[in-house]
Fold these 3 entries.
Entry 1:
Amino acid sequence: MVFWGIIHRMVLIELLKVFSVALVAITGLILLAGIFSEAMRNGFGPLQILMCIPLLLPSLLPYTIPPTTLFATCVVYGRLSADSEILALKAAGVHVVHVVWPAILLGLVTSAITMYFFLELIPSTGNMLRNQVFGDVEELLYGMLRKDGVIAHPNISVEIHVKSVHGRKLHDAIFKRRAADGKGFDVIAYAKEAELRVDLAHRLIMVHMRQCQIVQGNSVGFVDSKIWPVEIPNGFGGSETKHRAMDMTWMELFAYHEKARLGQEQTADEIKLREAQMVLGNPQTKDEKDLAQLVEILKYHRGIMTSTFAEMHMRPALALGCLCFALVGCPVGIWFSKSDYLSAFITCFIPIVVIYYPLMLCMFNMARVGTVPPWAGVFAADAIMLVIGLILFRRMARN
């Protein structure tokens, strides 16, 4: 039996067929659910929904490709076993282990593709999603008013209520400005008609109100036209800079980690110098406060290093899951001999969802805060799957 022959090509073709159909179906369902969820929550228009689809798709693939690999191997090898083709190959003197090479190849290729997506594509499209879809702050605000009739963001110092929105016109608008102490409102304005304009250069939302009645404290005034400037807070409408490890490309992760490492070394040297000065002289209260502040800065740099290091391990660990799933799916599919899709799905997919992903995410969170080393924590789920796969393969080879 050669390493690669006609039987391998036939199995690989079947694997690719099932994998392609299942990937489109699973990713499509999750994509539609995510799109409609965001649209309902943020009041997206048709154009924003269309923009979301290609930008959201890459970020879903690392979570749909591994289960699809598992599903394809279970279905194809379950069919081979159910149709007695595995038995026929054994009778022809072909060892069953030779039949699994196409599944291993599929696992390797899908792992490589998933890791490639993590290098640049997923972080880039994620930032494009925030900048392009949520970056249109004006359209986002109008969408919120059309959907809920109110803008009440916790980081915006005002609330805006409207009765109806016709085009760009807000009818029967109420403008409320929060008091400086955060208790109640110090200004309330009622307008027959209003309009919003966004000045991104100065990060302001301009609320233009007409036929306006203004209530401020015990005084009431009337003006024909009034423009209220409202500052756009950081983090609203996708305007925040990339500060999370998951938002960075592979090269940006290394640069961010190196920057944090240098910051940690510099802060540690400053702490040693300050401690030495305090030992030689009389410590002042200011020196003690500065030292405490330096310690907090040191913790901050260490936290960044830990989170970025965990992210560096998380991405290849998720990609390696494709190969792990392929190794488990082959023997399980052969043993259960299920030729239908539903049985294969229940046999393998549900245990993986219950065990693999919860363990992966739990260990990642622990590694991100430094509770466990990233190399030992993040890869724990993959290691368990590999051990299970090897045990199943050994038992299958003996039989």
Entry 2:
Amino acid sequence: MRRERKFSFFSFLLTIITIGLLIIVIGGSIYLYMHMTENGINIKESVDDVKVSIKKAVEIVTNPNTSAPNISLSADDIQSIEIKQVRKEETGANYYFYNQLTDNGKMIYNMIEKNLDNMKTGSYTINFGTKFNDILQTEKGKADLKVDFQAAWDALALDNPMVFFIDVTKLYLTIESTTLGSKTVCNAYIGPEQGVSYLINGVKTEHIDEYEKKLEAIKNNVVAKVEGSDYDKLKQIHDVLVEQLEYDQTLSRNHTHDIYGALVEKCVVCEGYAKAYKYLLDGVGIPCVLVSGKGTNSKGETEEHIWNYVFLGKRWYAVDVTWDDPIITGGILTNSMKYKYFLRGSDSFNRNHIANNYLSNNSFKFVYPSLSVDDYN
């Protein structure tokens, strides 16, 4: 005898809910596809982002003790995250120039700094995707972003002397626009032009790690030997550079502007002296910044020049290691020469040093620390 199946309200309700969810999912998928197609969004990238979000959500739900920062992300996932670092320095010396950038400039600075190891290839491209799309839609957007790019590089080069292997003149900001219907989407990336390496002449990728180890070893050796007060350390490191370095009169050496030329090859121009002084002072924790401008020498000749400001006793003082190491023919370097530009205040130092707030002929204005009026006593 055939049994009659009893009507189950719960089963009926579950069926209705299931059908409703399917309709929502299918309808939502169709809408999402049409929206992404209309706005030129890359479907694969968007789906990958959804997968990452779902992965996070599942981990948090299944393990309530898991916090978001502990979730493991792939390198590609991390690359897509907008970095907003907060620099906490008592004097702001280590990231002194970073702190002056616009938000876009800071984003560019952070991405370059984050990818320095990748950039050792000389061909790595940093892809910002559509992060700058909003500003690039404005009338002056491209010009403003180029200013931010140059300012970001200037700030990074001044804040971090270890960026010695990249020739920024070979590094390009590229902006591409794609128009789909009435929508225009702008992508930006930084990389080489036409496959030309942006490493400085004479540097090969396989040598950079070796160069960095040599520099770290030299710095550690100097740091281990200096002692006493901050004044003593400033003077001892100043003396190491004056005694060991020579001014490059040929101006043609590959490393004449950087710390490798100063600390390993020991022959550089003023930029190499100043960067080496900052690099070593960073090692002993004494705030120091690079200052670019013009100097008028003893012959009355004005030339492009770079020196340092250092922080001592709650004040900033100027130090020009290069001019404390003058080229002497048939004579002896006296103490009056050796310390002529050591820990000077603005009254004496600015007589023949004029700081330039606009670096690389860029329209972005940097601000330097205010010098003590008087020399250090």
Entry 3:
Amino acid sequence: MIEAAQFVEAARERGFDWYAGVPCSHLTPFINYVLQDESLHYVSAANEGDAVALIAGVALGARNGRRGIAMMQNSGLGNAVSPLTSLNWTFRLPQLLIVTWRGQPGVADEPQHALMGPITPAMLDTMEIPWELFPTEADAIGPALDRATAHMDSTGRPFALVMQKGSVAPYALKKTGLSGVRERAARAPVERFEGERVTRREALDRVIGLTPKDSTVVLASTGFCGRELYAADDRENQLYLVGSMGCVTPMALGLALSRPDLRVVALDGDGAALMRMGVFATLGAYGPSNLAHLLLDNGAHESTGGQATVSRGVDFAAIASACGYALALDGDDIGVIDRFLDAKDVDGVRFARLSIRTGTPGDLPRPSIAPEDVRARLQAHIAR
């Protein structure tokens, strides 16, 4: 058994100062220790996939050797499969995973872990994530972290430490609340704009015109959103998600929090937003003023044939306001984008939903640049 401080401080020496996750009783000492150190950063995620995507955003903007850790119970691996396989693996965005081993064979546990426990190692192997048991002796911590960072640096992909029960000594929580959460006295009023709906391309052209390359990063959701942005203007300050549906916003949050010098714009779709609506609460709580969340809502899963979503019955702007966004806009008029990006003195994350028309050019290309090359190009750009 080790002390939480022994691992966290050894990890800090190797650049790990960003943490995100969902609690598990095995993780309690770590979370308690990190929460009480103001020089470390911990984000309480709505689900494990959001935590992985958020740390991917930290990795995207990493400088000066900064690294991140996503923590979860092994039951949460199911929630994290999508970003681990189609975001981290595809774009080569490394992170350390600490996965608790509930239901480990031979260890009595709750019935809900009876299947996940035995298959946890196989799940990691199937996702091509190297793993080893979490260190339980002080002199094993440094070598384990060195093996993890060597893999992360050489491959650009995650490494996992699987934590058994009783690996870490208890550490009491001496504070209440969460560091970094923004306190708000009142909800932001929803501002609504009436007008004529535009196409996705017209909306993206307006975004491009208002997001200068030298100060802004634009992350586009999977599907036609990213493909149309690429077709409109393939700029070096842009990244187009492939797969990992719903992960553009937690990824943007990780980038915005770790790089306050950048303005980060997340382009979302209604289907993707519905898939991970829990992240609205996370963005509202932690979202900084350099983060902007624009939802282009056409009421359809257009890239898969145009099947309708339930977005027409959802007031996304009211949800954003209720979750703590500092600005909440909604409407059909393209002027929403101007108000959204030009608003001054907004203390916190801003949100806008623009209702757009369906329809996509028939000759819409797919990006010819590989995802990891898009990532490398963006990282080189923001490093400058």
